[in-house]
UniProtKB/TrEMBL annotation:
An example Gene Ontology biological process: Golgi to plasma membrane transport
Compositional bias annotation for Polar residues: 275-291
Protein known as: Coiled-coil domain-containing protein 93 isoform X1
Domain CCDC93 coiled-coil, chain residue ranges per copy: 51-273
Family annotation (Pfam families): CCDC93_CC
Region (Disordered): 275-303
Length: 303
């Protein structure tokens, strides 16, 4: 009886070990192949990568379902064997047989634990693949991202133009402020020193020289401002010319479009006229091909 128990437990352990090893090898090969494909195809086409990942995920899910089914059946069968052996042991065996049976039971439990660990490992691999799939954006998401980036670019360009305009206004006002401060300082200086300078010849000479220097500086500043104004005026004229050319081109396009529409309508009328003339000509040809008596009757009927 103990020998039979030993043989049955040995067969159970061998069968369970073979199933676990086979499932482990299959799952490991699938995961390895999937990771190689992900590493190899990641820099290239996004769509083919998603398709290959989905196919591999389906294969892994099917393998997981098969593995869980086999594990459940193996667990049920092993539990039945254990219950049967337990009943046989309780029915009466010696101590040596009981020790061997306990040893086999422990081995079977160890195999079950290892199978559960392997299943947990495979589940973690599947979860990792699912996360990678979730990280890949779909075509709709890519289109939405592109539209959003285009809107952001438009807003940034608009804000940039406004900022440049504000900076130009600030620089112009700052320059006006500096000129007004210089003018105020000059007037104050002249007001304070005019009486002392006009009293002597040297003072008058220095005052005249100082005023001439101020006048030269003002002339240079004026020339610089005039050059800037001329460049801005040229730019403005160029923009106006481009605008006028665009308006003229738009008007020409509108006139050409109107002419094209008129020609299309005329073409449709001519086609309808040609079709009508063709139908009348075919009717005349049919009448000419008919016998003389029938043609005369037909002409009399028309008359």
């Amino acid at each position: 009886m103990i020998r039979n128990l030993d043989d049955r437990m040995h067969g159970i352990r061998r069968h369970s070990s073979e199933n676990v090893s086979r499932c482990e090898a299959d799952a490991s090969d699938q995961v390895r192949i999937l990771r190689e494909r992900i590493d190899k195809e990641c820099p290239n086409s996004m769509g083919w990568r998603v398709v290959s990942l989905l196919e591999s995920l389906k294969a892994l899910e099917k393998q997981e379902f098969d593995y869980q089914s086999r594990r459940s059946s193996d667990c049920s069968r092993l539990q039945e064997e254990i219950d049967e052996l337990d009943n046989m042991l309780h029915s009466g065996v010696d101590d040596e047989g009981s020790v061997k049976s306990d040893h086999y039971f422990q081995g079977s439990n160890a195999l079950l634990d290892s199978a559960k660990k392997e299943l947990a490992t495979k589940l973690r691999s599947i979860v990792s693949v699912k996360r990678q799939l979730d990280g890949v954006p779909s075509q709709a998401e890519l289109i939405q991202y592109e539209l959003r980036f285009s809107e952001l670019n438009t807003q940034i360009q608009k804000k940039l133009r406004q900022t440049r305009k504000h900076y130009d206004t600030y620089n112009a006002l700052l320059e006006i402020k500096e000129l007004m401060l210089k003018e105020t300082s000059l007037l104050n200086s002249i007001s304070l020193q005019f009486q002392n300078a006009i009293a002597s010849a040297d003072g008058r000479t220095k005052l005249i020289n100082s005023l001439e220097g101020i006048l030269n500086g003002t002339q240079q500043k004026l020339e610089k401002v005039q050059l800037t104004l001329q460049s801005e005026q040229k730019f403005c004229d160029t923009v106006k010319d481009k605008y006028a050319a665009a308006i003229a081109e738009q008007r020409q396009s509108s006139s050409l479009l109107k002419l094209f529409q008129e020609e299309c309508a005329r073409n449709e009328r001519l086609q309808a006229q040609v079709e009508n003339e063709g139908s009348e000509a075919s009717t005349v040809v049919q009448l000419q091909n008919q016998p003389e008596g029938r043609r005369n009757r037909r002409w009399r009927a028309y008359a």
